[in-house]
Design brief:
By secondary structure, this protein is α/β, with parallel strands linked by helices. The chain has a single domain, classed as fumarase (Alpha-Beta Barrel). Helix content is 31%, strand content 30%. The chain is built from 6 helices and 9 strands. α2 crosses α3. It starts with a strand and ends in a 5-residue tail after the last helix.
């Protein structure tokens, strides 16, 4: 199987054959973007200082080494829980034109609608691999909103084959976590019935 690599700027047609459960990689521009940046744009109507059209964001708060003279190095960059951004994500996608949202865990109906309507993906980077993720960052090109502190600043990174990234919501709005939830609940009910037959004496 050929490795699927998306390169920014990502176009709608680049996403049409990608489905939930697929594993992809990213090359190009990846911007760390968490709660406060979402809130500034959506609630406070403050425009982002970077054009995200066709690019990717990462729900992450990195640890960054400052070398001085506006040069920086990513030391560690692990995903934060994407669901924290759920209530903002549809509007965020609409207003920015972002095409790839990288995070941890699933997202809900709001993000599903955003991905389907405006053609974007939500993907999951495996948790516990923050130091490995940092090795995929070739350089930090710029940083914005430093007043928010290191974790919430917008770190504009150049990455090469960043991943693996598991597609959790595709451009049709299909949601891997919701599909799995149904299947896992079926198995849970089956196993509950099976176990109950062998532990009746406890009741």
């Amino acid at each position: 199987m050929n490795k699927k690599v998306l390169t920014t700027p990502i176009k709608d047609e680049d996403l049409k054959d990608i489905r939930i459960g697929d594993i992809i990689y990213l090359t190009g521009t990846l911007v760390t973007c968490r709660d406060v940046a979402h809130r500034r744009l959506v609630e406070e109507k403050i425009p982002l200082p970077i054009d995200l059209r066709g690019k990717a964001i990462f729900h992450a708060g990195p640890i960054v080494r400052d070398h001085g003279n506006e040069t920086y190095e990513i030391v560690s960059v692990g995903p934060t829980t994407s669901m924290r951004m759920e209530r903002f994500e549809k509007e965020f996608i609409e207003q920015t034109g972002v095409k790839l949202i990288v995070g941890k865990g699933g997202m809900g109906k709001n993000t599903e609608e955003g991905c389907k309507t405006y053609k974007a993906l939500h993907v999951v980077f495996p948790a516990g691999n923050a130091v490995y993720a940092a090795t995929k960052v070739a350089k930090i090109k710029e940083v914005h909103w430093k007043d928010l502190g290191m974790p919430e600043s917008l770190w504009v990174c150049e990455v090469k084959e960043f991943g693996p990234l598991i597609v959790s919501i595709d451009a049709e709005g299909n949601n891997l976590f919701e599909v799995n939830k149904v299947e896992f609940n079926k198995k849970k009910d089956e196993q509950y019935e099976f176990i109950s037959q062998h532990v009746k004496f406890i009741k």
